[in-house]
Design brief:
This protein is an alpha+beta fold and 818 residues long. It is built from 23 helices and 24 strands. The strands form three sheets. Strands 1, 2, 3, 4, 5, 6, 7, 8, 10, 11 and 12 form an eleven-stranded mixed β-sheet that branches. Strands 16-17-22-19-21-20 form a six-stranded mixed barrel. Strand 7 and strand 8 form a beta hairpin. Helix 2 runs antiparallel to helix 11, helix 8 packs parallel to helix 11 and helix 13 packs across helix 22.
Length: 818
């Protein structure tokens, strides 16, 4: 311990004597460590961090599984039905309590302006599983799970404070939810926003209110073949995950024996960690692995950079090290002391990196374009601190081991003579330093190419024809179904709304649609064509319900045929409009007008094709052409989230307040959402690509900066070490241009080797991200060429400055100094 403390004191004094070196090294490492800590904070929140619960280590998912008949692959995306939940709750002995939940949109119409909230429908066991205690009132009981029970609600602490000013007398009062009175029976604990990552719950309602909050899906509550609940549970004291999983599988087998139609359904018991359910977790793990690889490359570049600094610093201390060896110090003792300096740098950099990670988190959230309803709390915990500590320790070993080993073994006689290295030592050191520079260049190019590919994908997506004219149109959404409207009231509301809106000055067209074009929701179903090949000629198609005038409202005239008219109502012959892709798939080379299709459910009637719409983008701008059909909303009046589409002659933005007021005049308790221009909706569909490009651009720029600093540092050190050589050569008649050319050649040779290696590595690694790209290949020549050129230009700048300094050496001054 005495030796350790002595080494620590010496390391601190030594680093304090070189404040410039220490500051640069600490900041470089802190950026790399902070980037890794920041990204791991997100991964930790999604995969590892337990929810705030007294017995979080005993929480589990009861995940439904379904085995694919074709791929023989077990998917964890199946949700459980309510009858299944009851069966497992009554038969499981290793799980004390189960709680089911599902996210639902809710409309709050009391206490101020009507607004759409994030809601969650839960069974009575949900809060008991999580062992939450309400600061006010109570949570749900089993009586609240019964259909027809008195509607009650639990509010989030945040909503209670924001909307109702934390009123204690709110308990027992009624609030208007989905147009119906709900009695407030409790408030959730402060900071508790639900169990799902990113979904901030405002209101919880019990299963017994399903007919009110999910009127379209309430008929499925008692159906065993319809899974709609995510189920969490809490292990009994002493039970293990393996025992609970085996018991659950046994019960699943018994259920299948009684209900053979569910033969491919199963269940797994999985540890509850992070906020992702098992299905999303299964898909997210590869994405997070790729995400963690990006800052890891930045850290490797930072390590190479600091290793070069350490080698350069060790070269200036060769005389000191040689004297200490001559006086009896062992090489092992010198290695320990030099390595201690590296560890001290790492500890300081780790602390600074932890602070930087908080700012990097804010930066990543700012550039990632998350939707407003997504709430991600990127706060560090013990896992993040432990990870940062491990990364810092690994960093110290990575950049400190080789320089300490090399510095503790100098050639003794040359070191005592002049502190320089003999020819052999200089060659070995130059090769090592050059290797670090080449590695920096190669890794930086890999990151730049990755960022460039996503940037090119974004550019391709921006140039895609969305199939709608977005310049002079606005959209505003609302949902009458959750407000308790029946079909007749809905029809009257829509008719009045369209009559008023079409009378506004400057409005050229108005219509309704569900879902919203280019929205986040997409409806899909198998569709088959009529005829002898009915079973063979079918497609998986997406569809939307629309009102007459829809195609005028989106600025996309029909290719052929007619639009829907008011005569296409319930009771009239069913009709449909299909897009060009669907026409080519079902009737290649034929006229589709007059043909008939149906949804193959056995009860759906055939729909006559009366028109063909041009192809467009329906969900993502980067999607491939997909079959799509439109049906009259009046012939399929079972859809929610209706969107009003209005086209104007001029700027449509000033119209939005008037549209809000018009809707409110028809129903004061009806909240509106997604009020925006179609141009804004188009931009939102690119948030994923824009966010990926921005995040990778930040890391790519950081890597480029570190690589440039590394190359500059190496060349500046080479110039300083060879001052006498340059002075002698210039005294003997060497031209300044020759000296400049020599140093430029050395720097650019290293950069060129790094660029070539980086291109090879990038060509091999970018194939992993092929599924995230659109319109380009993972080895896009233009992207590779531009990124290589950018890195080359930066390398030239980093080399020219120290090379020009070499040409300014005064031969007489250099010779006198030596």
């Amino acid at each position: 311990m005495d030796t350790l403390f002595q080494d620590l004191r010496y390391a601190l004094r030594s680093l304090a004597k070189s404040p410039g070196f220490t500051a640069v090294a600490v900041l470089t490492l802190a950026l790399g460590i902070g980037a890794n800590s920041s990204v791991f904070t997100l991964v930790n929140a999604a995969l590892f961090r337990p929810i705030a619960s007294p017995h979080a280590d005993r929480l589990v998912w009861l995940a439904g599984t379904r085995e694919s008949s074709r791929e023989r692959r077990v998917s964890l995306r199946r949700q459980l039905s309510y009858p299944e939940l009851r069966d497992y709750q009554s038969q499981l002995t290793h799980i004390a309590v189960l709680g089911g939940h599902q996210n639902v949109p809710l409309a709050l119409g009391s206490g101020g302006e009507p607004e759409r909230l994030n809601g969650m429908i839960v069974t009575s066991g949900y809060f008991r599983v999580l062992e939450q205690r309400p600061p006010l009132g109570r949570f749900f009981t089993t009586d609240d799970d019964v259909a027809g029970a008195t509607p009650v609600a639990v509010l989030s602490y945040h909503l209670w404070q924001r909307r109702f000013d934390g009123a204690a007398d709110l308990l027992g009062r009624d609030i208007v939810v989905n147009g119906r009175p709900f009695t407030v029976i409790g408030v959730a604990p402060r900071g508790f926003i639900g169990s799902d990552l990113g979904y901030r719950v405002d209101v919880w309602v019990p299963l017994g209110t399903a007919a009110i909050v999910t009127p379209d899906d309430a008929r499925f509550v008692e159906r065993r073949d319809v899974g709609w609940l995510r189920v969490i549970g809490r292990l009994t004291p002493g039970a293990t995950l393996a025992l609970a999983d085996a018991e659950a599988r046994t019960i699943a087998a018994r259920i299948v024996a009684v209900h053979p139609e569910l033969e491919r359904n199963g269940v797994r018991v999985i540890r509850f960690a992070g906020g992702l359910d098992p299905g999303n977790r299964q898909e997210a793990v590869p994405v997070f692995a790729l995400l963690m690889a990006v800052p890891a490359l930045v850290l490797l570049i930072a390590c190479a950079n600091v290793a070069n600094l350490m080698l350069a610093r060790a070269a200036t201390r060769r005389r000191e090290i040689g004297i200490r060896l001559a006086l009896g110090a062992t090489r092992r003792r010198l290695f320990t002391q030099l390595f201690t300096e590296a560890l001290v740098l790492t500890v300081v950099a780790g602390g600074v990196g932890m602070l930087l990670s908080v700012w990097i988190n804010d930066l990543l959230i700012a550039v990632s374009h998350l939707p407003e309803e997504v709430s991600v709390a990127l706060t560090p915990d013990i896992r993040v601190l432990a990870f940062t500590g491990c990364v810092a320790l690994a960093t110290g070993i990575l950049f400190g081991l080789v320089p300490a080993f090399r510095a503790s073994r100098p050639d003794l006689v040359p070191a005592l003579k002049d502190g320089g290295g003999g020819p052999g030592g200089q060659v070995r050191r130059s090769r090592l330093v050059s290797g670090f520079v080449v590695s920096q260049m190669a890794l930086s190019l890999v990151l730049l190419v990755t960022a460039g590919l996503f940037l090119r994908t974004l550019g391709k997506a921006l140039r895609v024809d969305p199939g709608v004219e977005t310049t002079h149109a606005v959209a505003i959404s609302f949902d009458l179904r959750i407000q308790g409207y029946d079909a007749s009231r809905e029809g009257a509301f829509y008719t009045q709304l369209l009559e008023r809106v079409r009378g506004f000055p400057g409005v050229t067209a108005a219509s309704l649609a569900s879902p919203m074009p280019l929205g986040s929701r997409l409806l899909s179903s198998p569709v088959a064509a009529e005829g002898p090949g009915d079973d063979d000629v079918n497609v998986q198609a997406s569809y939307a319900a629309i009102w007459p005038g829809y195609f005028d409202a989106i600025g996309a005239p029909l290719v052929r045929g007619r639009d829907f008219t008011p005569r296409d109502r319930a009771g009239a012959p069913p009709v449909t409009i299909i897009n060009e892709t669907m026409a080519r798939r079902l009737w290649p080379g034929q006229d589709p007008i007059g043909k008939r299709v149906r949804f193959p459910s056995g009860t759906e009637p055939y729909l006559e094709v009366v028109g063909v719409a041009r192809d467009g983008k329906y969900h993502e701008l980067t999607e491939e052409p997909r079959p799509f059909l439109y049906v009259p909303e009046r012939q399929r009046a079972d859809l929610s989230d209706i969107t009003l589409l209005v086209r104007t002659a001029g700027d449509p933005r000033p119209l939005l307040p008037a549209l809000r007021e018009t809707i409110r005049s028809l129903d004061p308790n009806l909240p509106v959402f997604q009020a925006m221009t179609l141009a804004d909706a188009l931009r939102q569909r690119l948030d994923k690509e824009r966010g990926a490009s921005s995040v990778l651009g930040v890391f790519g720029g950081l890597a480029l900066l570190l690589a440039a600093l590394g190359l500059y540092g190496v060349m500046a050190y080479a110039v300083a070490q060879r001052t006498r050589e340059v002075g002698v050569r210039m005294a003997l008649g060497a031209a300044r241009g020759q000296v400049l050319q020599q140093f430029l050649g050395e720097g650019l040779r290293l950069a060129a080797i790094g660029v070539v290696m980086g291109l090879i590595i990038a060509a091999a690694l970018t194939r992993v991200i092929a599924r995230f790209l659109y319109g380009i290949t993972p080895t896009d020549v233009l992207t590779f060429a531009l990124c290589a050129s950018l890195l080359g230009a930066v390398a030239v700048c980093a080399t020219v400055i120290p090379a020009r300094r070499a040409t300014r050496v005064d031969p007489m001054v250099a010779l006198r100094t030596e």
